[in-house]
Design a protein that fits this description.
By secondary structure, the protein is α+β, with helices and mostly antiparallel strands. It has helices spanning 2-22, 53-59, 125-130; strands at residues 29-31, 34-36, 43-45, 48-50, 63-67, 72-76, 98-101, 107-108, 121-124, 134-135. The chain has 2 domains: 24-80, no CATH class; 96-143, no CATH class. The mean pLDDT is 77.
């Protein structure tokens, strides 16, 4: 009985010490000297620090919009001198056709194309053509 109690105490002490060894302090997020307290904490995953994008972008004064049908996050910063209550001036020119490119591709795509799963960068059709992008043969964007 005495040996059993000693083993039990030893295991309890080991587990307590092991828990302390693996305890990690939370990752703090500080933007322009102000510490943020997001509902979702930053995490270290496979050597990469993952932070809640919306909290950081909004702390920097940007608007964040998620489009689930497009699987795309839109982050819009305000122009210099613009306040949050004052919308950005809208161009009065003709409406441009928007297509989407990836970081490393050579084609432009329609929104929702399967090739936009890793990156989704909006660009005008005119600019895409001027930069030498060709239309995607899968989603057949406007030409």
């Amino acid at each position: 009985m005495r040996v059993f109690r000693s083993i039990l105490v030893g295991v309890a002490v080991f587990l307590s010490l092991a828990g302390l060894a693996f305890a990690v302090s939370p990752i703090r997020i500080v933007v322009n000297g102000i510490e943020l307290s997001p509902a979702v904490q930053a995490r270290l995953i496979d050597g990469q620090i993952m932070v809640p994008l919306r909290v950081v972008a909004e702390a920097l004064g940007a608007d964040v919009r998620w489009e689930p049908n497009e699987s795309c996050v839109y982050i819009t910063t305000k122009a210099a001198g613009e306040t949050a209550s004052e919308p950005a001036p809208q161009p009065t020119e003709e409406k441009q056709v928007t297509v989407y490119i990836t970081k490393s591709g050579s084609k432009y795509h329609r929104l929702g194309c399967r090739f936009l799963s890793k990156s989704c960068i909006p660009i005008s059709l005119e600019d895409a053509k001027a930069r030498g992008y060709a239309p995607c043969s899968v989603c057949n964007p406007p030409q």
